[in-house]
Amino acid sequence: MKILIASHTYIVDLNCEKLRALSQLESDLEVTVVVPKKWRPGGVQNQVIESGYKDEGNFRIIPVSNFSENHQGLLTFGTDLISLLQKFKPQIIQVEQGSRGLAHTQMIILNKILGLKAKNIFFTWWNIPYKLNFPASLLEQYNLKHSHGIIAGNQDGAKILRQHGYTGSIKVMPQLGVDETLFQSQNQPELSQNLGIKSEEFIIGFVGRFVAEKGIFTLLKALSMIQDKSWKLLLLGRGELQSEIRQFTVDNNFSTRVTIIESVPHDRVYQYMNIMSTLVLPSQTTYNLKNLTSIGWKEQFGHVLIEAMACHIPVIGSDSGEIPHVIGDAGLIFPEGNASALANCLLQLMNNPELAHKLGEMGYHRVIAKYSNKALAKEQLDFYQELVMIN
After folding, report:
1. Cβ distance 108 to 76 under 8 Å?
2. Which residues, given as ranges, of the chain have pLDDT below 50?
3. Beta strands in 68-201, from DSSP E residues, in sequence order
């Protein structure tokens, strides 16, 4: 089977591990990844990533000239895409730019004009209800009508696509898996010593942006309720709320228990996770200021959860968005924004080391079975094979 996947995501080599695993599942699989030649991450004016060609046998990354260097929905490719499609003749074409991405429209049209007869698929993370005006509504209708299958990164995303009229096959799975060869249980005595952490201390960890939607103040309020217990808080990240976080810990008399690490390379995050007693993701759904009944953001997945679970670290998450589906029964879940409920979850783990160990082991086995790169690659291949069998 020949599979072509297009997305700016795979300019970053670390993000390609699932697709590499996919190319190795069967001897007759060929995976070609199309990436834009140039991309500006986050739209940063002076930062441009120039992608490079890679040929690893059954797995290739091919940079293609592109229009729009910083907008996912407007990304389209140059005429060199045509010769690539003609030569490769894929059976699967997957574009990972959402339901109204122009790149998906472009692939649908070229698929038809070139007579490839490939199955058109797109991936989306979008999990917030929305209404579209013309011409965006027409573009989405066209893409949905001509999509043979969809991969949604979360349950809410799949539900929304049904509400928008899609009746075909939908697979729910994340875009990226966890590298279990990197994120694994490993003692970190030197790092613990450098941070002044003793082996017997209960370390509560948070990894992410310091912004309102990540619910970090729910965590801080929960900790203010259990100051009679012995714990320390390790925060990995940065963001607009950092000064407010520091002030809250001062005002509530636990600033000496808090360590903030502002910048950690992704390939070193596992080291910090391995000194945590638990990782907490207290994400909180936000609402638009102009319409308080309209959701502005909710957690799309929570990748740090599966990274911690791969390290055998028990996790606690709010019930925002996809988090409960990610954790399943392999961790503790509390109602988002409820600091008292979160404090209770923390106390359960502090007071019951056997429960903490059990959840850590359950989380690890859940990740290996569902969220490792190899497990996700197998799920993706199964989905492709189902679609190819459909006339």
Report:
1. no
2. none
3. 76-77, 92-95, 119-124, 149-152, 169-172
